[in-house]
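Reminder to self: tokens first, then the designed residues, so the page reads top to bottom the way the pipeline ran.
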């Protein structure tokens, strides 16, 4: 038996899945899913509710154990955010959310260092939330008390078993790693004002690092997108592009080496560390975060909204979903409808249709650019929003490419596969990846969207 618990935390929900690695086809069972949201602190900054997240994780693990013994636990979360530990190993404050506006002046830092030099060094797309920009403006009083920084997946690992580790895919999105050596860049750490001793030694995933109630805790690809691409299923022989869907649409290809050419830099492509070696060459497109945020106003079910949006026959406005005004607005419905030239009280079905169309247009644009960098034969779409048939249909239409639908819970699957490697239940990642076929929906999940 090799049954593992995969904890996959997205920016809007925590999922805990049970995966039987010996089953002929790998289907995660979602045993716990709970929504979470960042809150504003006294100074008005957005911070994650860390207690809510850790409680959801623990409850999920308890539910897993109620169903039978588990052989390993692994954790992945969204990238770039981190927590600071004091000398006693205690978390100093709730981690900041990458949507917090405190990094809005990040361009000054880029100019100081030089955009080309920065890209050639860390290979990352310029996003205001990259850890390097967050650290440069981090609250000084907190920073002075800090002894160790952990990215959120490893902060959860620390919470579960006390280990303090820095995993390669988590470190790889920080903007502090020299992409050609895989080690901390002294110049970039200096720019962020961080002593690299606080960051620890970078280690690869695929190893056991501790125990939670006697169950091994394995280090997996901490970055959820790295886990999701690991769990997307096999790539076909001519090569597949991918789109990891959810809060973001992450469109790109897998590659052995990073591409820091001026072509890639000008298009803001990123080179992110892949689960067990290699890179993902991709660009972020704002995804279903838009719908999730509008939904807080409408209080309507995603499945119902998407169903009604599919029936819309009117032409809907296409907006630039990456517009700055949609990054972190207090009121997404106002921000989106203003950009779209719609009234705020427009039928939610029409707004939803506009969001789906706009997200698909932008994603198709990125895929067209990916194709220039490296031709591919088809596109694999996976993650929460891969269940939205309207999205799949519109992407087919805009890209004119074959689109295969992969697992909805790809991140949990990739997480589970790397655990399999860590505990010796799988010889290689590819051996597991081959057993993910077609559209895999979680056993017990009737939701129809992200
Ligand atoms: C997806 C994701 C993206 C990253 C963004 C911020 O959940 O991890 O890969 O760019 O969130 O961390």
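Designed residues (450 positions):
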């Amino acid at each position: 038996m090799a049954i593992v618990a995969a904890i996959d935390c997205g920016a809007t929900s925590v999922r805990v899945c049970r995966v039987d690695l010996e089953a002929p086809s790998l289907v995660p069972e979602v045993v716990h899913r709970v929504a979470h949201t960042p809150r504003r602190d006294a100074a008005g900054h957005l911070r994650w509710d860390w207690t809510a997240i850790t409680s959801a994780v623990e409850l999920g693990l308890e539910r897993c154990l109620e169903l039978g013994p588990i052989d390993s636990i692994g954790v992945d979360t969204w990238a770039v955010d981190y927590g600071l530990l004091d000398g006693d190993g205690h978390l100093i404050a709730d981690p900041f959310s990458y949507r917090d506006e405190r990094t809005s002046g990040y361009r000054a830092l880029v100019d100081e260092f030089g955009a080309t030099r920065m890209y050639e060094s860390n290979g990352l797309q310029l996003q205001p939330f990259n850890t390097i920009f967050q650290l440069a403006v981090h609250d000084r009083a907190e920073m002075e008390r800090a002894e160790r920084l952990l990215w959120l997946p490893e902060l959860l690992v620390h919470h579960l078993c006390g280990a303090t580790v820095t995993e390669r895919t988590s470190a790889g999105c920080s903007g502090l790693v020299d992409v050609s050596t895989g080690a901390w860049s002294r110049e970039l750490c200096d720019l962020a004002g961080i002593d690299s001793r606080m960051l620890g030694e970078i280690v690869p995933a695929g190893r056991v690092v501790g125990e939670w109630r006697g169950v091994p805790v394995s280090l997996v690809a901490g970055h959820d997108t790295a886990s999701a691409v690991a769990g997307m299923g096999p790539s076909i022989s001519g090569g597949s592009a991918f789109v990891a869907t959810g809060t973001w649409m992450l469109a790109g290809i897998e590659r052995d080496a990073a591409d820091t050419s001026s072509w890639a830099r000008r298009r803001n492509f990123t080179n992110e560390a892949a689960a067990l070696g290699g890179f993902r060459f991709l660009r972020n497109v704002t995804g279903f975060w838009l719908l999730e945020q509008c939904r807080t106003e409408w209080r309507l079910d995603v499945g119902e909204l998407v169903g009604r949006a599919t029936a819309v026959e009117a032409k809907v406005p296409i907006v630039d979903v990456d517009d700055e005004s949609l990054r972190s607005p207090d009121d997404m419905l106002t921000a989106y409808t203003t950009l779209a030239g719609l009234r705020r009280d427009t039928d939610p079905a029409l707004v939803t249709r506009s969001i789906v169309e706009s997200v698909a247009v932008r994603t198709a644009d990125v895929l067209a650019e990916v194709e220039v960098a490296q031709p591919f034969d088809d596109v694999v779409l996976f993650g929460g929003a891969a269940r939205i048939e309207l999205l799949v249909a519109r992407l087919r239409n805009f890209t004119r490419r074959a689109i295969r639908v992969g697992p909805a819970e790809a991140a949990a699957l990739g997480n589970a596969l790397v655990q399999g490697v860590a505990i010796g239940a799988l010889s290689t990642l590819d051996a597991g990846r081959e057993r993910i076929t077609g559209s895999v929906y979680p056993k017990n999940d009737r939701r129809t969207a992200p």
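Residues 445-450 have pLDDT under 50 and may be disordered.
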